[in-house]
Specification:
Elements lengths: L7 E5 L3 H11 L4 E6 L5 E6 L5 E6 L30 E3 L6 H10 L9 E3 L6 E2 L8 E7 L5 E4 L1
Parallel strand pairs: 1-4, 5-9
Antiparallel strand pairs: 2-3, 3-4, 6-7, 6-8, 8-9
């Protein structure tokens, strides 16, 4: 027996319509399933490629967001989150599309880190320019729920 990959990641949103617009229109993820929950809530799924889905729960009376505890408060200055929380999710995109993705997010009014981040093994962990020692390049942003996302 072996794990074959991630089927879906389930998060919680504050506004189902706003979340659906963001993930379908800005991120280009088709809405593939919605489920009415017995308690009046909704559970809905977006295709994020590779056979995996990003899912959300929504409840009209759900607890409020807890930045700095359950989600990142202010990346990169206050990026710690509590044990058991989700810090961020990273989606794979072709490296040569990172700048275009960053611009697409900016054009859509999405709050993003101001540049593509080049992660390396230097003392700071990041480099101003892409070089041979960069092991991943990333675009960081938050969705309408304040959830930190990464395109890598």
């Amino acid at each position: 027996m072996a794990i074959a990959g991630v089927n879906h990641l389930a998060l919680v949103c504050r506004d189902m319509a706003e979340t659906t617009r963001f993930y379908t229109e800005v991120m280009g993820m088709p809405l593939i399933k919605t489920v009415q929950l017995p308690d009046g809530g909704q559970h809905f799924f977006f295709d994020c490629g590779g056979g995996s889905s990003l899912a959300f729960f929504w409840w009209a009376d759900g607890p409020p967001a807890a930045p700095g505890i359950a989600s990142v408060k202010a990346f990169p200055l206050e990026s710690r989150t509590a044990v058991g929380s989700m810090n961020h999710i990273a989606f794979s995109v072709p490296e040569d599309e990172l700048e275009a993705w960053h611009q697409k997010l900016v054009d859509a009014g999405v709050e993003t880190f101001p540049m593509v981040v080049n992660h390396d093994d230097s003392e700071m962990g990041v480099a101003r320019k892409n070089h041979e020692g960069v092991f991943v390049r990333s675009v960081y942003f938050t969705d309408p729920n304040g959830i930190m996302m990464e395109l890598a």
